[in-house]
């Protein structure tokens, strides 16, 4: 039976890493979760973890670079749970791309996922947010939260494509915040630094293997650039997103919160 009062959050890229941590944290916060991922198996694994802890969730397979797939996926979550309160556009790709190695295929693929996925997620959410009218000026009927990055704050070596997409997400976030405020919708972003995810571990392992060292050694090379002296766990980022999804951030919009352990200071 649908609980009409239970808030609902959709998380793209919920099958692993930061996305899974966000889904688990928001489920703990009391949200029903739409677990969206390109990988159906991992999306369902996230749902199983949420349900094992007593929460509610639905897995939907989606390629976020495809507009109609994103809209359909969000519609399926709303059909299941009866509403949408928070849309988290988390899914992304982060390839290393030295400038000479960038091809049209890499450029299009990364932009289609990292930037296109944000556009389509916003559109999919708005379809449902616009059905609810704020009772008075300043009331919040929905929240959109986008994944930017520390690499969307400063340029990083060999990340010309990824970094460009994350700078773009900040721009989209600011514009959408202005455009959607009158509808009672806030739009913010989060900017992680170096996070212990499968993607990051693959990068660190490559460095470690080249130096005949362990994975932890490889990760520690990246931690040297972090003021707090350690790389982030996905749960650190999820805590930031929990704040953005909750009522304590209702008077915040158009912002990109940096959660990087002290790599960038603004």
TrEMBL record:
NAD(+) binds at residues 16-18, 37, 63-64, 90, 162, 166, 192-197. GO terms for molecular function: diacetyl reductase ((S)-acetoin forming) (NAD+) activity. It is an enzyme of class 1 (oxidoreductase). Pfam families: adh_short. It comes from the Bacteria. It catalyses: (S)-acetoin + NAD(+) = diacetyl + NADH + H(+). The active site is at 162 (proton acceptor). One of its GO terms (biological process) is fatty acid elongation. The keyword Lyase does not apply. Belongs to the short-chain dehydrogenases/reductases (SDR) family. PANTHER family: 3-OXOACYL-[ACYL-CARRIER-PROTEIN] REDUCTASE, CHLOROPLASTIC (PTHR42760:SF40), SHORT-CHAIN DEHYDROGENASES/REDUCTASES FAMILY MEMBER (PTHR42760). This is diacetyl reductase [(S)-acetoin forming]. It comes from Sodalis ligni.
């Amino acid at each position: 039976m649908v609980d009409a009062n239970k808030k609902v959050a959709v998380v793209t890229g919920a099958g692993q890493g930061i996305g899974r941590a966000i889904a688990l944290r928001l489920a703990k916060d009391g949200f029903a979760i739409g677990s969206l991922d390109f990988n159906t198996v991992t999306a369902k694994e996230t749902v199983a973890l949420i349900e094992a802890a007593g929460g509610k969730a639905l897995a939907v397979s989606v390629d976020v670079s495809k507009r109609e797939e994103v809209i359909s996926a969000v519609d399926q979550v709303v059909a299941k749970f009866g509403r949408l309160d928070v849309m988290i556009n988390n899914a992304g790709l982060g390839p290393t791309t030295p400038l000479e190695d960038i091809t049209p295929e890499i450029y299009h693929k990364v932009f289609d996922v990292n930037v296109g996925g944000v556009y389509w997620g916003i559109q999919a959410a708005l379809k449902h947010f616009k059905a609810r009218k704020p009772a008075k000026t300043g009331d919040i009927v929905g929240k959109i939260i986008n994944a930017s990055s520390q690499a969307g704050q400063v340029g990083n070596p060999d990340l010309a494509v990824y970094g460009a997409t994350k700078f773009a997400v900040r721009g989209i976030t600011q514009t959408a915040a202005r455009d959607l405020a009158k509808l009672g919708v806030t739009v913010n972003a989060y900017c992680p630094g170096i996070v212990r995810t499968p993607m990051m571990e693959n990068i660190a392992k490559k460095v470690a293997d080249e130096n005949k060292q362990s994975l932890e050694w490889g990760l520690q090379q990246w931690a040297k650039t972090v003021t707090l002296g350690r790389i982030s766990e996905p749960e650190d980022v999820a805590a930031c997103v929990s704040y953005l999804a909750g009522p304590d951030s209702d008077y915040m919009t158009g912002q990109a919160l940096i959660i990087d352990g002290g790599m960038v200071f603004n």
